[in-house]
């Protein structure tokens, strides 16, 4: 906390606009995520949720506004970015080396246990189920222990046990922030705040 009781922001989005040709997708989005908060964004398919996340992490330019990240972020895209010919463990080794993470392999092993997928460590990514590929996607985004984790539909393909393991993992991330985008928000008690993206703007639910 900052002096005076003001919450410490890890992410600030200010009046962000994004157009694709004549299609005005984001029409002045404002968002603040404070340290330790779990924030959900829901909305209809095609409402611009994934576009907003890509703008936040720098994968898409925006037309107007400001995005400020205070600290490091981990990004888990909707479609896993993996090397299909490498095993689960080899993917973790590759991304650890690519990002210069010294303890990435041990961190990856710990995360595999928490997400209950360590039995697949020697299996090539192309043969993993959709849910297990998504777990590997999540593990890679967490290897460097980011200040904020930005997740685009992170539990698609999960069975209920995997869904519970996901939230158990999130609950262990003390002092970290999480931004989750999903078409539906089920257990609302997991979230500090929930917004709905509608007509290009975020509305507090």
From TrEMBL:
Domain of life (superkingdom): Archaea
Domain ABC transporter: residue ranges: 11-205
GO molecular function: ATP binding; ATP hydrolysis activity
Keywords associated with the record: ATP-binding, Nucleotide-binding
Classification via CDD domains: ABC_DR_subfamily_A (cd03230)
Pfam families reported in the protein's UniProt record: ABC_tran
GO cellular component: plasma membrane
SMART domains reported for this sequence: AAA (SM00382)
Family matches, as InterPro entries: AAA+_ATPase, ABC_transporter-like_ATP-bd, P-loop_NTPase
This protein's name: ABC transporter related
Organism encoding this protein: Korarchaeum cryptofilum (strain OPF8)
